[in-house]
Amino acid sequence: MDPFVLLEGLYLTKIMIFLTHHKFVVVTAFLAALLYFINSTKRVYLVDFVCYRAPDYLRVPISSFLEHLEISGTFRRETIDFQTKVLERSGLGNETYLPIRMHQLPSVRTLNSSLAEVESVFFPLVRKLFSKHRINPRSIDILITNCSLFCPTPSLASTVINEFGFRSNIRSYNLAGMGCSAGLLSIALARDLLKVHKNSMVLILSMESVCSNVYQGNVKSMLLANCLFRMGGAAILLSNRERDRDVAKYELKHLVRTHLGSKDSFYECVTQKEDDEGFTGVFLSRSILKVAGEALKANMGKLGGLVLPYSEKIHYGLSVMWRRMWPPARKRGPYTPDFRKAFEHFCIHAGGKGVITGIKDKLKLRDKDVEASRMTLHRFGNTSSSSTWYSLGYLEAKGWVKTGDRVWQLAFGSGFKCNSAVWKCISKVNHNQDQDHSNVWSDLIHQYPAVVPDVIDH
After folding, report:
1. Residue 373 in contact with residue 346, Cβ under 8 Å?
2. Strand-strand pairing, 270-274 and 345-348
3. Which of 25, 154, 221, 435 is most buried, judging by how many CB atoms fall within 10 Å of its CB?
4. Which top-level group of life is the source organism from (predicted)?
5. Between 151 and 431, where is the model more confident?
6. Is residue 366 very low, low, confident or very high in pLDDT (cuts 50, 70, 90)?
7. What is the pLDDT of residues 210-250, one digit of tens each?
């Protein structure tokens, strides 16, 4: 008999004997390997993100904005006075931006002007992100764009594909009408797609077009959007490729979505509609802070079970039981868990000063916890779906984000929606601002936090 065949048979016999006498070890090792494989395929990495900062000639100081209102002849005196009062107390500073066509008299609000605005934001963002990481556009597997109030044909996703020459088999999606929480909705869509498409990279582009959606009527609840929304956007690069873990900044840990649109009061809280004179604008209800609070409560209920330590869960459970057993305790309301024990950083949607303050009080946060959101509102205004990325950029520029830190991004949107994303920092974020020119805060972070008076003297 061939000695090599005999030797091979001997080894196979030994292996069979080992498997027979060590079934538990083999099964355990197999299950551990299977569990590792399943978990590794579900991981979503945030490789990097960049935010848009317009050129200085698009800056719109509050005094210039009000002067434009006066000269335009569009609004009545009482309407101008109302917008003046709102801006003085809005929390916005004198460094925010508006598209070039809105600086003209009269303002140009056409399809072409809106397309030009979108291209002026999306195209530089993509170029900056691709240049920084030396990415070939053809390596992008999935593209997601979101812009709530502007939805042309071909889609904005197709516009980006045409400009950069993405592959013909790229999976592209364009989200519209999803409000200020569309940025986190895009993350949710990307996460779900990455569950079934292995070894893929996702590019998300998030912005709101303000050029074609300026309200020219005189309904006060529809004029608020004119005062708060400003030009901005963000590009986010996600991946589920294991080799990208070494270069990624964060890993997505949780994503919780809450939609309360089945109730009329929530559904009608933020709506785009026409007034009696036929002017189209975004209506913001006076109950928006109350609605946001209820939506946050529902979202926190699910998120808390995922992120809070057991001590906080037990404390909350005991408080609920105590209120049921002892009626006088109901006057004080339920115990609010301390989310600072679950997160080191908070990126609250910079929708307005009232929104940020309301969430701060609801969660019992410190001024430092909401500093990034307040400074984002002050420096860039309400940039809608991209605002939480400006806040995260602020935290990075300050050098506050360390390896292992957890970040809570919280956004609200029409519908009414409240969405949360939880990220864990898995790398040493570059704190050398001389080298990281992709961060919009890098060259001016030394000026912040800025003092924001209750009423701005312009």
Report:
1. yes
2. unpaired
3. 221
4. Eukaryota
5. 151
6. very high
7. 987 889 889 999 999 999 999 999 999 999 999 999 999 99
Residue 255, C-beta contacts closer than 8 angstroms, at least 6 positions apart: 184, 187, 188, 191, 419, 420, 421, 422
**Enzyme catalytic residues:** 180, 259, 345, 349, 382
Q: List Cα–Cα distances, 48 to 51, 208, 245, 252, 361, in angstroms.
A: 11, 21, 11, 12, 31
* The residue type at 401: V
What region, left, alpha or beta, does residue 366 occupy, with left being phi > 0 and alpha being psi -120 to 50 degrees? beta
User: Which pLDDT does position 434 carry in this prediction?
Assistant: 46
Dist. CA 208–CA 117, nearest whole Å: 10
Q: Using only C-alpha atoms, what is the Rg of the chain? A: 26
Q: 165 vs 153, 157, 170, 283, 382, CA distance in Å?
A: 18, 12, 10, 38, 31
